Amino acid sequence: MIQFVIGIIVGLILLPILLIFYPSRAVKRNKLIEYNLKTSSKKELTTIQAKNILKSLHQCTDLYWLNVLINRFWFELADSNAQAYRIKQRIKRLLDDIPGTGIIQSLDVVDIDIGNTGPIIKSIRIIDASERQHLGDAVDKNNFIFCKNLYKKFIKTDGLLDFDKIHNEVFKNVHAVISIEYKGSIKISLKIGLPKKFILNTEVNITRLEGNVLMRLPSLSYNTRLEYSFLTNPDLEVNIDGGVSKGEGNEYFKRTISNLLRRTFKFSVLQSFVYPSFNTIYLPLISADFKDLRHLIHKITPTTPVNQISIRESLEMFLALDYKIIKVVNDVTFRTNNMILNDKEKIYCAHFLIPECALNSSHFSSSNNYIYENLTIKESKIMNQIYDLSILNNVILSFKELNTIHNFNSAISLVELVFLDKKLEFIRIVYNNKIFFQRNDEKNPDFLIFYIENNTLYVYSFITSNIIKMTQSRIFKLKSKLEMKHYKEFSVNKLFRYSKNALNFWKPYVAPREKQDYVTDVKNIVNITSKHNVSSHFSDIDSFISVHIPKFFYKFEVSSDVIFSILNQDSVRLKFISEHTQIYRQISENDLYRSIAIESKNKEIKDFILHTHKKDNLICDVINNKKIVYEVKNDFQSEYVNINNIHNHNQKSMYSLPSNTEIDLHKKTQITFLNLNALSKLNTDCEIKDPINSVFTINRLPNAITLLNIYVEDEAFYSNINPLYESIYTRITHQKIFNFSQKSDFETLYIEKELRKDFFGDLGGVYIEFKTSKSDDFKFTLFSTVDKKDILKINKIITSKPVKIIIPIFHEDILLLKLVPKFNKNKTIDIKIVNLPKLYHRESLIDCNIGLTYKGHFTFPIVGSPSYIIFWEKEQDEHIKGFIESPFTKVPIKGNGTMRTDQMNYSIVYKNNGAKCREISIYMGVTLKNSN
């Protein structure tokens, strides 16, 4: 409180002097400018704090004990030479910060006398947001009506107070109204040196100060300061005498200068100390305080023991300094600390809110997919661009790549930044939500610090080399890159200059980067783990099933192995939870279960961890401590037969029947029980003839009817069962094809600039699967040498996962497969090509990841039939529009879905209307529709 009062007094004394010599620096416009520049605390309030907040909304006037303590302390302060010295130094420091214009040559604080009488605090209370909106008027000290209205405002329908809302609203930035009264005598004498040896002698004597002060803790702009403002013009009595002299001679213009100072003083108080103008005071013990900033490091090598904690703590100390706002331009805030580090350069800070499009877009690519502590998956994606500094591509034009020299552990590594004509070594340290880049140079210990908090990106830099200095223009480029503003109009001169240097600056170059397998038990790059012990959920699955009734149950005419293989795919089971989720990465696995980080594309659903356990015929998923159990089992209550018309392969049916049941072989849509000559008891495998001499084979099959039971502990975890059912059903036939293709082995082929492979395509279909050890971009073409045209052409397939394609073949053909890699990361490619039976001659499928440039499109041609359906699954992206085109119509599609087909050709088309996108996961094609 003493520091608060003294801060007001020092400000009152300096303002008239500043206003006379530097009016632009002293006068503040009567306008409230608030920037959301600091991060809010994530700590929760305790019960005691919450109760105190509620009580603090009442005005407190019983402050005699506090005033006694203040005045007793003030009594000792009046005789303290140390306090007088601190006030003198503060006045000099404030004036030294003003740019020198040659007006003030010197400043001498001749005398300071604060007197024996201290200030009196008459009342104090905390106010809430609703009352702050009416500030500027006189504050009613009797707050009975205010408190009464406050309780009405936060009353709920159930008669309970929403205390949490009051507490959080008040505590975020505490606003206190303090009634101050001072009746004493504070004298300060100054001698200000002017040009040509003139001296301005000034004496200020404050005898009375009374008013209501609004104090805000912390300030809106700094979490290291508090700010204050008088609600109305304070009652102030001040005597100011001043005159100009030369040397020790007589004073001139004494009356004129004294009147000018008094008028200026009153004007400056009104302009700069009255609401909504605020003045700030540093909070004690919050920010680091150094008299001389030094930063030293010892150069390290791959064989040198590294003290990671020492380096990190040294850099984190610079984050704790107080940074003054220089300016706010285009929603980017620039700050600096006034102290010079190592007598070379200041530390600069820039921060801005990460654009929403950057958090939701997949146009950035990175060789890693780490999850950082205290960050969401979307924020972690941005941090992964910082980890390998790919975020600086095209931001610093001369920057080419970051190479890892040596990994000491998962948190610290020695890296090399490669520029066009220079290489710099840095020590990279990852800790929680921060990444530090410390230059490995004892003479130039430059550093860059990046961290993300509350969707805001902070960049701290101490850089003496211009090649990597984060200048204002580079910060703007960085923000524009995150906003995906890739195109810019240039003048003729700039266009010529950029085109002239294009070979050097815009040479297409992508360095081969290998993924690093880091240990998972370090605290730096953190794998998200559940706060609950998920193991306990997997130990009682049997008892859980025994006491619960299945929420959903389905019957499939296929073996249980096929259904279990489909459900074993995490992407399929995610359809039960939401269509707007995707797998980010697997984060852990043990003998009991594995954990996967799931990213949500829907704002209503948060990112979550999926824990999965498999036991016999059961798959158990745990989400937020709740279970979903999938039970796959055979139906043993029926016999199963396969009835096939030898003369017509299309007439093939499989039936589930009780034992010794008779069946009409001609009615395929339903089973009818008739006692006619064409019927036969299905006791053994046999051949029979019906009255029109059609020959049928009747084969007894192993159990081929599968029951799927789904048990749900919390119904809030699913939205719609249809996407899951469609996802399972559309995969049944293709899972059979996958199982059929497993009999064939992969062929390893060498690939350089391109791969060409021709093969015979038989009537039925062809299954193509290929994969690489390192993810790369491929141009895919399948060409028919008989028809002399492309069957399928895809501009960019990304081999981050195996590529699976099924193409129907309607006549014998010699097909040519052509694969062209973009980055040549792999010397070999594993490929499998399998000719499929005629049974699958209308099945189509493509399952892979693709990339689309701006205005790029993807087309998958398919052939429809009345008994088939088109299905599609694609990750949500508002910029990628989808259509199903036929010769007669064009139907827009999005997300996941199915559509019946007629006997005609169709095409599934995706077009990208936004920025370049990578890793677009698609699963689409044609399959036999459900006959149930």
TrEMBL record:
* Keyword presence, Coiled coil: no
Keywords in UniProt for this one?
Answer: Endoplasmic reticulum, Lipid transport, Lipid-binding, Membrane, Transmembrane, Transmembrane helix, Transport
Recorded hits in InterPro entries, A to Z, give: SMP_LBD
- The SMP-LTD domain covers 59-284
Q: Where in the cell is it found?
A: Endoplasmic reticulum membrane
One BP term from GO = mitochondrion-endoplasmic reticulum membrane tethering
Bilayer-crossing regions: none
Give the GO cellular component terms, alphabetically. endoplasmic reticulum membrane; ERMES complex
Q: Which GO terms describe its molecular function?
A: lipid binding
Protein name (Swiss-Prot/TrEMBL): SMP-LTD domain-containing protein
Q: Which organism is it from?
A: Vairimorpha ceranae
